[in-house]
Amino acid sequence: TAQVGLASTARPLAGDLDRVTTELHALNSYVGSTPSSQLDAGYVQAQVAYLVKSVDGLRTAVGALAAQAAPAGR
């Protein structure tokens, strides 16, 4: 059925969202616990770039899933 197809498409998105959430928590912890004079700007920039790319990918995937779930003709 269509619901089974949607569920199988959505399942990996949940894992991707878990990974992004974990990375956000790690970055937040790093920034919050590291003295500002010791922050590694390159690391922070790399993490932010990774998170932006990941969120953009999730947004695209969610949009495709929503389009797949939309009734035909809408």
Concise structural overview:
With 74 residues, the chain is an all-alpha fold.
Topology, element by element:
Layout: H1 2-33, H2 41-69
Helix pairs in contact: 1-2
Number of helices: 2
Main sheet attributes: strand count, strand direction, barrel closure: none
Secondary-structure-based class equals mainly alpha
What's the β-strand tally? 0
Strand content: under 5%
Average pLDDT over all residues: 90
Question: What this model shows, in words?
Answer:
By secondary structure, this protein is mainly alpha-helical. It has two helices and no strands. Helix 1 (2-33) runs antiparallel to helix 2. The mean pLDDT is 90.
Key features of this structure:
0% strand, 74 residues, elongated, 2 helices, mainly alpha
